[in-house]
Design goal:
6-stranded antiparallel β-sheet; CD59; lipoprotein; alpha+beta
C-alpha cells in the first residue's frame, strides 16, 4: 500500500510540473551563422521560444535565440539603423529548448511526462 501511495505522489508531482514555465535557449547576437555561446532561460507567461534572424539587403546578417512575446511569432519587423534598412523575423516554437540549433523531434517526451507514464504503469503492476 505504501508503494502505491509513493508512486501516486510521484505521478501527481510529475503532472504538476508539466505546466511549468517553458525553457528556451538564449544566445546573444551572432553574425553570419557563427557559433554562439548559449545559456538557458525561462520564459514568462505569454512567451515562447524563438530564433530571431535579421537581414539587410537580402542577406542574413544576425541571429539570436531567446523567449519572445507570442504576438511576434512568424512576423517581420522592418527598421533602419545607421541608414541601413533591415528586417527582423521571429521563428517561434513551443516546447522546451525547441529553439536549439539541432532540431529535436516534435514528439520528444519531457521528463515529467515520462515519470507520469512510469507511475501509471507501476500502479497497474502493484
Amino acid at each position: 500500500m505504501m508503494a502505491r501511495l509513493l508512486v501516486l505522489c510521484v505521478a501527481v508531482l510529475a503532472c504538476i510540473s508539466i505546466g511549468s514555465a517553458l525553457q528556451c535557449l538564449k544566445c546573444s547576437f551572432t553574425f553570419h551563422g557563427m557559433p554562439c555561446h548559449t545559456s538557458t532561460t525561462t520564459c514568462q507567461a505569454g512567451e515562447v521560444c524563438a530564433t530571431i534572424r535579421g537581414a539587410a539587403a537580402g542577406q542574413g546578417l544576425i541571429m539570436k535565440r531567446n523567449c519572445v512575446a507570442s504576438e511576434k511569432c512568424n512576423k517581420n519587423e522592418t527598421e533602419t539603423y545607421l541608414g541601413v534598412k533591415y528586417t527582423t523575423t521571429y521563428y517561434c516554437c513551443e516546447g522546451d529548448f525547441c529553439n536549439s540549433a539541432a532540431t529535436l523531434p516534435t514528439s520528444h517526451l519531457s521528463l515529467p511526462m515520462v515519470l507520469a507514464m512510469l507511475g501509471v504503469w507501476l500502479i497497474r503492476l502493484l
